[in-house]
Design a protein that fits this description.
alpha+beta, 6-stranded mixed beta sheet, 148 residues
Length: 148
């Protein structure tokens, strides 16, 4: 019989909930769904994406505004490291993203690699992102070979 402590089980649940937030964020970006994006952040959360440094809710609204004009995207978070500490946690997730951007000659396809450096807080029993910093590690671009 395996004896698993309550703390071990709670750690597994916490990591699972944080992993779901990471996946929901990627889905929100790809669907350009500002409400889904906001659901993963605390109301006072902040983000730093280089091109935007400020309140997460404002960033979510910006991402949701360009529904028709923004590029086709595909975000895939991978290799997530999570460090729990009571009602706070830190995480680092590798991200690989694809973008298809229209231009005058057709479109440019981009493959981007980076990391999300996150802090999380559990408030009222729910985990949410308190701060996210995006680090761009590499990218590559090429002329589109199909239709967007």
């Amino acid at each position: 019989m395996i004896d698993i402590s309550e703390a071990t089980l709670q750690g597994l649940v916490d990591r699972s909930e944080i992993g779901q937030l990471i996946a929901s964020h990627a889905r929100g970006i790809d669907r350009k769904d500002s409400d889904l994006l906001k659901s993963v952040y605390l109301e006072d959360a902040t983000v730093d994406y280089g091109v935007f440094d400020g309140l997460a809710y404002e960033f979510c609204d910006i991402l949701g505004q360009g529904q028709g004009e923004s590029p086709v995207t595909l975000h895939r978070p991978t290799n997530t490291w999570i460090k729990l500490g009571g009602d706070k946690a830190r995480a680092e997730s590798y991200i690989c993203a694809y973008m298809d951007n229209p231009n005058d000659d057709g479109h440019i396809q981009s493959l981007i690699g980076g990391r999300y450096l996150d802090t999380y807080e559990r408030r009222d029993g729910s985990w949410k992102i308190a701060n996210r910093t995006y680090v761009l590690d590499w990218n590559t671009n090429w002329a589109g070979t199909g239709t967007a």
